[in-house]
Amino acid sequence: MHIDVKSEQPLFLQVARAIEDDILKRSFEEEEQVMSTTEISVRFQINPATAAKGVNLLVQEGILYKKRGVGMFVSPGAREKVLEKRREEFSQGFFRKMLQEAKKLGISKQELVKMIEGSDGQ
Amino acid sequence: MNRIEIKNLTKYYGKTLALDDVSLALEAGKIYGVLGRNGAGKTTLLNLLTDKISPSSGAVHVDGKPVAGNDEVLGKIYYMMEKNLFPPAMRVQECFRWTQVFYPGFEMPYALELARKFGLNTRKKVKELSTGYLSIFKAICALSSNASILLFDEPVLGLDANHRHLLYRELLERFSQTGSTMLISTHLIEEVSSVLEETIVLKAGKVILFQNVEELLASAYMVYGEATNVDRFLDSRKGMGEESMGKFKSAIVLQRLAEKDIQELSELDLESGKVELQKLFIALTNG
Question: Which residues is B207 bridged to in the sheet?
């Protein structure tokens, strides 16, 4: 889990994203308990309300669920949900930005394709 | 509980106005940052909250009870002052015991554990402590006091980066366990920024800003780019904290970044980014 106070993203979104990353990497399996807001708060030196806001966002999206008195757990099917969401983000955000940057630098489509093919397996 | 109500608080020192009609309602179980430049009134506010000094007018209530002359209420508040009030020849461990006399909920094992974590020698006399260790010692007293309202005036004064980091972590851990209301006054804004939930900015004795930190940072952005284009962008907006570097310029805009702003930014070939609390603070309190 990684959080960067200097990053452009609001901290609560970073918390949500960091947990999603851990789910994608299978650091947290489905039905497994995730870090508590206190643990997140102390480890990353952020206000517990901020940490809770990030966690609650994932609860709303059905990626995490709360077991009363125990903690937060990864929902069944959470990984698939995260994958779908992040793929959408990839094509809408990351990929579009890359195209814009390539355009700015005068990199042609063919050159881009070459780069992608050349970076196979990396 | 432990809601703090500050009503029309004004303090004059002779003819000097140190705090000017300040009203604030502070909720229990939140971490507040009290920010301001030197002489803005931060310490005066904290002194008034704990009845160390009397207001010229106005009052402070905790859960509806006035703090003035009220030992029951004052016993719920621990104030880590910038000044040292312990006898210089007293050893740290004795100071802990005396703190326990005034704060019966004081947790000695926790205090000793913190002392060990920070490498504070509890056999040392207060006068033998360096500036950094004096801060650490006072912060340990505050965290261990078990008071439900903790006020910290410059808690990280003289601390190296590792100890500052450790202190904020311990503070957050303690906060999560006890839910104490905490007020932190400090000049090291960027470091404390992520720890705070709400920020109170004082300028010349007045509260010029009282807002949730996350909301505050989300409702402002920075623009950078060629100075002429930045100026054009700022024609229809209020820019602040402008900084020029050659033909380039950056500025802070106190507005949520909307779709039409993004459109205009890209037309003018400008970039936008997040504002740091410190930069925002400087822009707000300058002049």
Answer: B202
Distance from CA of A100 to the nearest CA of B (A): 11
Q: Where are the domains of chain B?
A: 4-211, 219-286
Q: How confident is the model at residue A97 (pLDDT cuts 50, 70, 90)?
A: confident
pLDDT value of residue B248: 95
In 3-state terms, what secondary structure has residue B78?
A: strand
Residue range B219-286 forms a domain whose CATH class is alpha beta
- Only one residue has tokens 């503070």, namely B171
Q: Which residue from B128, B180, B126, B132 is spatially nearest to B155, judged by alpha carbons? A: B132
Q: How far B91 CA sits from the closest chain A CA (Å)?
A: 30
Query: Does B195 contact A44 at a Cβ distance shorter than 8 Å?
Result: no
* In contact, B213 and B34? CB cutoff 8 Å: no
Tokens (6 digits) for A113:
């394709």
Cβ neighbors of B176 (< 8 A, separation 6 or more) are A37, A38, A41, A42, A48
B256 Cβ under 8 Å from any chain A Cβ: no
pTM of the model: 0.89
> Cβ of B63 under 8 Å from any chain A Cβ?
no
Q: Which two tokens stand for residue B90?
A: 């007293």
- In chain B, residues with a C-beta closer than 8 Å to the C-beta of A12 are 214
Looking at the structure, give the CATH architecture of the domain made up of residues B4-211.
3-Layer(aba) Sandwich (3.40)
Q: If you search the block for the tokens 């209301």, which residue do you land on?
A: B181
Using CA atoms, how far apart are residues B136 and B130, in angstroms rounded to an integer? 10
Alpha-carbon torsion angle B226, B230, B232, B235, nearest 10? -160
Question: Are the beta carbons of B176 and A38 separated by less than 8 Å?
Answer: yes
Q: In angstroms, what separates the C-alpha of A117 from chain B's closest C-alpha?
A: 31
ipTM (interface predicted TM): 0.85
pLDDT single digits (tens) B129-154 = 999 999 999 999 999 999 999 999 99
What is the helix (H) or strand (E) element at residue A64, kind and residue range?
strand A64-67
With a CB cutoff of 8 Å and minimum separation 6, the contacts of B280 are B216, B217, B220, B241, B252
